[in-house]
Amino acid sequence: MTQFSHISVADVAAKQDDYAVVDIRDPQSFANGHMRDALHLHNNNLAEFVANTPKDKPVVVVCYHGISSQQAAQVIAGQGFEEVYSMDGGFEAWRASQPFESSNS
């Protein structure tokens, strides 16, 4: 069974363009702020993400504080992705030190 790994905010920030970033927070939280190019991943688009994302593309899963993302990362790893990470500290850690985007204008 494929396992996920942990990754720091600094490591993701250093090579953000190399990762497929998926954010599993609720829609309003995602709209209020998210990482650049992050996909809001939820039950209704998980199958599409799995089908359309190359299995050799590293995936970073983001939640609020890095707890829920661990379970989601395990599910994604189980879909055949070679590299899956749960970002330690979640979006709140990212927000504290990195730029982010908002869908709200």
From TrEMBL:
This protein's record includes keyword Transferase: yes
Known EC number: 2.8.1.1
PROSITE patterns referenced in this protein's UniProt entry, alphabetically: RHODANESE_3 (PS50206)
Residues forming the catalytic site: C63
Main location: cytoplasm
CDD domains assigned: GlpE_ST (cd01444)
Domain of life of the native organism: Bacteria
Biological role: Transferase that catalyzes the transfer of sulfur from thiosulfate to thiophilic acceptors such as cyanide or dithiols. May function in a CysM-independent thiosulfate assimilation pathway by catalyzing the conversion of thiosulfate to sulfite, which can then be used for L-cysteine biosynthesis.
Domain Rhodanese: 15-99
Name of the protein: Thiosulfate sulfurtransferase GlpE
Source taxonomy: Bacteria, Pseudomonadati, Pseudomonadota, Gammaproteobacteria, Alteromonadales
Pfam family, one: Rhodanese
Compartment(s) of residence: Cytoplasm
UniProt similarity note: Belongs to the GlpE family.
Organism: Alteromonas salexigens
